What does this fold into?
Amino acid sequence: MTYTRPLVSILRSNIDVRSETYLSNKVAMEQHLARYQELADAAVAGGGAKYVERHHNRGRLLARERIELLVDPDSPFLELSVTAAADTEFTPGAALVTGIGQIAGTECVIFASDPTVRGGSMNPITVRKMLRGLDICRENRLPMVYLVESGGADLPHQLELYLAAGDVFRKITELSGLGIPTISLVFGSSTAGGAYLPGTSDYVVMVDQQAKVFLGGTPLVKMATGEDADEEELGGAAMHSNVSGVSDYFAVDEHDCIRLGRQIMSGLNYQKLGPAPDRTPLPPRHDPEELLGIVSADLKVPFPVREVLARIVDDSEFDEFKPNYGPNLVTGYAHLHGYTVGILANDRGVLLNEDANKAAQFIQLANQSDTPLLFVQNVTGYMVGTEYEQRGMVKHGSHQINAVTNSTVPHLTVQIGGSYGAGNYGMCGRSYNPRFLFAWPNGKTAVMGAEQLAGTLSIVARKSASDRGLPFDEEADAARTKSIEEQITHEEQAAVLSGQLLDDGLIDPRDTRDVLGVALSAALTNECRGQRGYGVFRM
It folds into this structure.
């Protein structure tokens, strides 16, 4: 028997785009977007105009230029973690471009070294970005295509990256063992640890007179053995194609290398295992441009999450589940670029007992019907206080966390506001392994808000002094409280967290629907099968 859901309703909009609240919210969001754009521009600029010009003068393409030629014409390329390494000592972007694109009709995770940044050398953030990309390959069963031009490890930082870098090569060989194709297109130097990028790949293409793959370059060979080696004989494309066998295909130039890469992918006949869209995509009935003014400039002020959903889901249609129970959490079914999804979205920030129970049941139902889940985060955490603790807040919050943990359908998470406390866990934050997690640039994430955290520590210190019969230094406490507030206010910012690879990238709110559409399609390259072995139960 086929279950047919009831007729869905259309999400209406009550937003007044001329109101003072809307306009002030929009100004605040535009300021966040301007900061994000500065970081993104810095990532695209790579090592700067001098090194870009030098690279072009050598007749070579930039990383993003190579990707543009590699992916199918007019197909989307979703770049991930654009601003990785922001707010660190390293160049934004971390000398690596990663993203999801179609090659010969197959969705792949594409990596491209940025040789304008220290010759494409890997710093600690680069390695973390590589590892995250390879996890995305494995979790979603996506082929890996690596456009290599890397000087290997950034040696002054070897302590921070050397051991972690070994995991890169382990993960590449793991993909091969799982039957997930791995392809390396070598455009330039691939030295030392970088040599194992092609060395561990299923297919390798090398560009004549450009590709150099060796464990030790000529300086190291001279130091280690006294040999005066020739780079071409040591690790050139011709040698590896004709002598060592490290290269499978010999490319006469960069365009030929890209052609060969597309040819390899075309011949693999790689198939998706997940479901196809079950209806024709329809745009939302409400203008996504209006998303800029919906989210409150002050995240302490609630905002109507249905207004956000109305500008993301297909045709603004939403089949809401338990609309009158646990109203702080909106749950229901919708379509996203033609795919059916279950949605959990915070409406008033805090999660009460009923909200947690509703979430747990809905997650189980989605697993019963093999339906992917989308978590829309703006959560302050689970409710505290005597009443809620006595009603079992710990137990009920744990039910939601349990359901999220054991759910096996694909999870996508988008953070549109705050994400605090254990609410981050229950709403599928990074530690709960969503297939993809994106954040709007206004987002904030921490164990609790800066003011609450600093105030809590102040109360604890005051009580400790009282218990020990010691005087309390009000002046020192005020200075400490101010310092902690400033620290958390900085650390909770989306740009800082994204720089540390704690999401898969900041996105413009207006792009949310399309970003999620690409991510959902990529996730469904793998099978979509919910947790089995238990029935749905009411708690």
Notes: The CA atoms of residues 98 and 111 lie 5 Å apart. The mean pLDDT is 91. The chain is about 40% helix and 20% strand.
